[in-house]
Here is the input.
Amino acid sequence: MIEFKNVTFGVNDEGTDKEIIHDVSFVIPDRKFVVITGPNGGGKSTIARLIAGIEKPQSGQILMDGEDITQMSVTDRAKKGIGYAFQQPVKFKGIQVFDLIRLASGKKISMTDACQYLSAVGLCARDYINREVNSSLSGGELKRIEIATVLAKASRLSVFDEPEAGIDLWSFQNLIEVFEKMRRDIKDSSILIISHQERILAIADEIIVIKEGRVLEHGVGSEVLPKLMGTDSAVPECKMGMAAKEGEEDDTV
Amino acid sequence: MIQFDEIQKRLLSEVADLHSVPEGAYNIRSNGAALGRASTANIEIIPKEGKSGIDIKIKPGTKNESVHIPVIMTESGLKEAVYNDFFIGEDADVVIVAGCGIDNCGNQDSEHDGIHRFYVGKGAKVKYVEKHYGSGNGTGKRILNPVTEVYMEEDSSMEMEMVQIKGVDDTERVTKSELAKGASLVVHERLMTHGDQRAISTYTVNLNGDGSNADVVSRSVARDNSYQKFDAVITGNAACSGHTECDAIIMDNGRILAVPGLEANSVDAALVHEAAIGKIAGDQIIKLMTLGLTEEEAEEQIINGFLK
Ligand SMILES: Nc1ncnc2c1ncn2[C@@H]1O[C@H](COP(=O)(O)OP(=O)(O)O)[C@@H](O)[C@H]1O
Ligand SMILES: [Mg+2]
Here is the structure.
């Protein structure tokens, strides 16, 4: 369980203080699949970074299972059971896909086991396991490898930041299945996904809408989703082709 | 049967991956004397007269054979210059493993200067691996100044892997090469310096024949107060292609000077250089920390991968 209590966070942008998250409070309970949605620039990724400990709030508290982790380091939070798939996956020189999955799992794992995580995200494991995690991989491939590492980490709370971004429609179907399976196997853990995708929102136990750094809405999925239909916060699958195309263009930059 | 002591064993495994006497031709030099030497039907190793070193003669057409010529030094205060000449016959295809390991527990400097010349015959293929390693906690320095000259005939190819990851206090490496028509040279250098170490690496590649090509790539890490200089000049005198790349990570108070140079003397020469120096990207460290690694463990993984 993760709890935000009156969390405020800002940055210093070229000399002027800019508050991004204003007095935000919410609870992500155990055994729940929670989706955060809302307009771009609303502060969703910033919340994910605050959960992982990459950013520290200026005021307020972050609690994990009741323990105050507000000042806890990224490493300690990861060890305590927070996993985080970045919106923009990080590239490395020389580090291979297998290395990342092995480090994520935190133990010695076999090639076969590592490959299962890749297959789970729709990558032909044999072709990828020894590849370097560098710019020779496309944006969509990096994104799926990022998701695979978080699967391998098997956390108490797994955060996925826009997992659908840059992934083509066909692979998206597989991905939905990955998340549906994660939801079934949730046990005592919790899953937090930042997404605009209707099909992901549709399987949410709870939906939180973040806008301009504030919680606009937080409730049971089936109650919140209908209000979002037809807005940018819930994009139906048939529009994904366009979204994916934009993503592909990003890859070539 | 040659008997190695523990330090010799450790140095040999570091520089040449050797755990016993190698197969094929070899010459093991320890503290200035030959510890063992063997020729084969196709590869002859002959000691030089009047100066230190050996001639390595590889018969034309020799295939899938290897030569190991490791050098180890365990006595403090030794200083030597060794001249090794390799004559690689036409169409031969061989692996040459050199390397020098110095263990200096004393307070006097130990220095090995290896001067290697390669005459690569028409159509011959050579893979050359050279590893440098230093150990021992004496105040005496471990110094290595290798000079490598490569003369490549038509359609020959050579791949050089130069590795110096640990323990060498001071090194000045000079590599020169001349390539005839259709010859191909690939160099991969991997270097890490720490403490107060200094490493200077100078490459001069002359592409003299049409269709010749060279690719000189260096990846390096400078930590603590160490200093590195990478100076690579490719000269294109014909219809050729050349590429040099220096990709370096600096840490602590490390310093790196990269001086890539290109000279085109033919309108058909296509030459490219790239150089990038910077600290480890912050997001790489953060990513690994979100997987549960400490900052130090993350840095170690990033550097290991980078130098792999
Ligand atoms: N380090 C930063 N410096 C300046 N502005 C930032 C920084 N991080 C985030 N922001 C700004 O905060 C707002 C929220 O960003 P983000 O959390 O990425 O939004 P979302 O993920 O909802 O699209 C944006 O306006 C963004 O430009
Ligand atoms: Mg975002």
